[in-house]
């Protein structure tokens, strides 16, 4: 729509201020988006109400946005049914026979996170549903479980070249002539060679067992979670009964969901199949009645409404940032400071900042690629290192931003506030960020 100068930074500034000071993510995102359209409307002498409403309708009718909202809502329905069948309790019982300490339970969650590498949403939802009861029994704070789950979601997905993240980024990069000139035969081959340079994902994933085992201390707000969490769990411990439920009531629906996702690549279809499996599995055995099934389906979807609202307004803010040309403005300002050696570190810093501000861990990197890759090629930076920096920036957003889809989803699945989840894991995310930034500087001079 044009260049709006320094006013381009007003909307993200409003979002961060309101969210941090008042801990009201929906209001922050809404006011941030409206302020963007005020800037655009005043600058272009266009009706602000028309701009804002047209953009909102565009967001609410976008296929990808509707798909994500439906997937999250249906997973809420599935989790409600799994809980009612006591399948989640049965899984917790099985894991408890193997993992009897806090460390072993959290390490098991980390291991499961790596094993379910196909998609970060599936990773988050599956692990949280089967580990919450066991964490409650052992008085492990939900915030710690959320940190472990979120840290093995996107980081694992980008490091394994068979995930949704890998396919998306490989295709985005391979469209650029500078990347094709590297000489690799396919987009995925090129992506695989960039994996060793995805430093943020590597650090985030590696630090989890180090935190669990005490090699990295419990820091910041996570300390108070352990104190408050242990106190709260003393009351709940007697209520956590792991003796009921059958493993098959969890394994078959979740197995069907994972299997269909692998075959079709569509988690929406996979969730529909998983719900149908629940019908066939539960109703004949009278685990739930037909009336209870319908009530649970609606209730589970309804339980996710606060999460879906945050996601919807995050989409709105993302669209507003695109309309006000935030990525282009920031990159054009930063291009004045480009050099061959420091370019990868600058690319990581910019993509991380833009993705964090907008809460968009896929869209912002995709917008930045056509600008960053040619700019990096022009200054003769190492292209594999630059690719790793761009992906790492997206992962940082997914992991650290308080209104990114992964953070909101993790917090909801672990039944804690998304701001609380963000604040408790932020010290570890920042540690990974700083070390990654240093690595990009060092490797920029070495390679």
Explained architecture:
Residues 231-238 have low confidence and may be disordered. By secondary structure, the protein is mostly helical. It has helices spanning 10-22, 25-44, 48-61, 63-85, 87-98, 102-115, 120-137, 142-151, 154-159, 164-174, 177-180, 187-194, 199-212, 221-236, 248-264, 267-282, 290-303, 305-323, 326-334, 343-358, 363-378, 383-400, 405-413, 418-446. It starts with 9 loop residues before the first helix and ends with a helix.
Strand content: under 5%
Biggest sheet, open or closed, and with what strands and sense? none
Assembly classification: single chain
Give the fraction of residues assigned to helices.
over 70%
Weakly predicted, low-confidence segments:
231-238
Element order: H for helix, E for strand = HHHHHHHHHHHHHHHHHHHHHHHH
Beta-strand segment tally: 0
What structural category arises from helix and sheet content? mainly alpha
Mean pLDDT: 87
Note the total helix count.
24
Termini Cα gap: 39 Å
- The value of Rg in angstroms is 22 Å
Note the overall shape.
globular
Draw up the topology in text.
Elements: H1 10-22, H2 25-44, H3 48-61, H4 63-85, H5 87-98, H6 102-115, H7 120-137, H8 142-151, H9 154-159, H10 164-174, H11 177-180, H12 187-194, H13 199-212, H14 221-236, H15 248-264, H16 267-282, H17 290-303, H18 305-323, H19 326-334, H20 343-358, H21 363-378, H22 383-400, H23 405-413, H24 418-446
């Amino acid at each position: 729509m044009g260049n709006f100068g320094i006013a381009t930074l007003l909307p993200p500034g409003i979002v961060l201020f309101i969210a941090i000071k008042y801990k009201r993510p929906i209001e922050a995102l809404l006011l941030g988006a409206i302020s963007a359209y005020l800037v655009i409307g005043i600058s272009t002498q266009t009706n602000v109400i028309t701009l804002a409403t047209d953009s909102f309708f565009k967001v609410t009718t976008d296929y990808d946005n509707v798909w994500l909202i439906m997937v999250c809502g249906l997973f809420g329905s599935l989790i409600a049914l799994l809980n009612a069948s006591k399948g989640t309790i049965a899984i917790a019982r099985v894991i408890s026979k193997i993992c009897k300490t806090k460390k072993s339970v959290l390490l098991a969650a980390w291991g499961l996170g790596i094993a379910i590498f196909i998609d970060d949403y599936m990773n988050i939802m599956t692990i949280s549903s089967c580990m919450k009861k066991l964490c409650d029994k052992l008085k492990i704070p939900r915030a710690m479980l959320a940190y472990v789950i979120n840290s093995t979601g996107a980081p694992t997905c980008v490091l394994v070249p068979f995930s949704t993240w890998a396919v998306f980024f490989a295709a985005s990069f391979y469209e650029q002539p500078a990347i094709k000139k590297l000489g690799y035969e396919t987009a995925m081959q090129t992506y695989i060679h960039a994996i060793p340079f995805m430093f943020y994902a590597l650090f985030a994933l590696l630090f989890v067992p180090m935190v669990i085992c005490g090699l990295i201390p419990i820091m910041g707000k996570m300390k108070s979670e352990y104190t408050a969490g242990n106190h709260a769990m003393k009351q709940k411990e007697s209520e956590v009964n792991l003796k009921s439920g059958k493993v098959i009531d969890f394994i078959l629906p979740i197995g069907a969901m994972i299997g269909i996702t692998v075959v079709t690549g569509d988690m929406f279809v996979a969730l529909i199949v998983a719900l149908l499996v629940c019908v066939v599995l539960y109703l004949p055995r009278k685990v739930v009645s037909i009336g209870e099934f319908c009530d649970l389906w609606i209730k589970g979807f309804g339980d996710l409404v606060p999460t879906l609202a945050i996601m919807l307004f995050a989409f709105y803010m993302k669209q507003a940032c695109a309309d006000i040309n935030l990525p282009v403005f920031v990159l054009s300002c930063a291009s004045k400071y480009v050099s061959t050696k420091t370019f990868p570190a600058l690319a990581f810093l910019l993509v991380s900042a833009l993705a964090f501000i907008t809460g968009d861990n896929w869209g912002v990197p995709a917008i930045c690629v056509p600008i960053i890759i040619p700019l990096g090629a022009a200054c003769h930076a190492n292209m594999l290192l630059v690719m790793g920096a761009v992906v790492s920036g997206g992962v940082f957003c997914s992991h650290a931003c308080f209104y990114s889809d992964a953070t909101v989803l993790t917090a909801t699945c672990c039944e804690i506030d998304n701001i609380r989840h963000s604040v408790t894991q932020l010290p570890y995310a920042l540690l990974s960020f700083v070390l990654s930034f240093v690595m990009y500087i060092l490797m920029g001079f070495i390679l």
